[in-house]
Amino acid sequence: MSWEIRPQLDQLRAEGLWRELRVMDSPQGPLLEHEGKSFVNFSSNDYLGLASCDVLKAALQDGAARYGAGSGASRLVCGSLRPHAELEAALADFKGTEGALTFSSGFAVPMGTLPALLGPGDTVLLDKLSHACLVDAARLSGATLRVFPHNHLEKLERLLQTAKGRVLIVTESIFSMDGDAAPLREMVALKERYGAWLLLDEAHAVGVLGPQGRGLAAELGLEGRIELQMGTLSKALGLSGGYLAASHAVVDLLINRARSFIYTTAPPPAVAHAALTALEMVRGEEGERRRKLLRAHVENVQTKVGLGNTGFQSAILPLILGDENAAMAASAALRSAGLMVPAIRYPTVARGRARLRLTFSAAHLPEQVERLMEALKVLNLLHPAEAACH
Fold first, then answer.
1. Which of 181, 263, 337, 375 is the most buried (most CB within 10 A)?
2. DSSP letters along 201-229, please?
3. Catalytic site residues?
4. Could you tell me which of 157, 222, 227 has the C-alpha nearest to residue 194?
């Protein structure tokens, strides 16, 4: 077989699927500097505006001064430092579970967890719109993979009726590309009826929803009924890394069997130290203040331009354009207007479902949000009937 790379690249360009890195010359925030120009940033997952806040920067510096720049080894050798243990205890308390285990990234969490818990003869039932890391982890586990249409409870129940072995339902609480929520109460009832387990990815809900920002499971009072709660430190918490919150038994098994945990150098201790501060902020009055600002921005946009149903559910608002090249052109037009809004295309979303993905932050100023809405109107990009429903 020929190793011809150039034709593949040409095809990506022709299909409107070409991607390239854009190097930013400023810290993450509501304003970004790129190639000498300033852009209002509506593309980040920094929902509470913590990534560049002074308190978190000071905590990171303090962690580096106390514990050094790197961990030096994997957690099972000599890289398990005090901040790692303290963070895991804090995460377990935050998520209402017996224990928690941190990983180097959110992607690494399911890649270690699913193969450690499942194998041939078992079954994974996966929402069709679940993140790529969940899909890849399910395939890697060797379990039978069955996909149900997005949030389709009737199909999920039919799959549960015939599933073999240990059965794990996998879903996001808030879906990363559409910003809508899983029907979590109903899914928990189904998994309990059929003796399955549930893995819930709270990446886009933690910090944003629920009491103290603890996520959708906490908002619905379901934390104690979900076996596996995963999340990330890289979105609302402003840092990097991932975690799984679960029982002591599950955590102990992962320490012994999760390859993405065992065979990698431990995350920098300064990041774990700073994450403790981020958790305190998210859980406290400052977190609540920022959530109110974020909610106000989203509800303002929903009310004035009709993107989805009104009422705050997440910080993500998709504007469905359909065609990949149309989405790229719209993103470029907004960039010319000084606004950073990404075009999301296949394979991140289905073909014909390309979109602008608008994300909001507590750090945005009201006038910046107004500027976005005016630009969308001027460019004739507001088509409420084509916006994803929330």
1. 181
2. E-TTTTTTSSGGG--HHHHTT-GGG-SEE
3. 45, 131, 172, 176, 201, 204, 235
4. 157
Tell me whether strands 354-359 and 343-344 are parallel, antiparallel or unpaired: antiparallel
* Residue pointed to by tokens 């609480």: 173
Reported in sequence order, the residue ranges of the chain that DSSP labels E, i.e. its strands, are 31-34, 37-41, 99-103, 123-127, 144-148, 167-172, 197-201, 228-232, 242-246, 316-322, 339-340, 343-344, 354-359
The pTM of the full predicted model, rounded to 2 decimals, is 0.93
Closest CA to 167 of 135, 144, 134: 144
Residues of the chain with pLDDT under 50: 384-390
Asked whether the beta carbons of 206 and 176 are under 8 A apart, the reply is no
- Structure confidence by residue, pLDDT tens digits, 56-100: 999 999 999 999 999 999 999 999 999 999 999 999 999 999 999
Chain position carrying tokens 């402003």: 238
DSSP state of 51: T
Is-contact 230 100, C-beta < 8 A?
no
Tokens coding 323: 């065609």
The answer to whether 128 and 164 are in contact (CB under 8 A) is: no
Structure tokens at 96: 């209402």
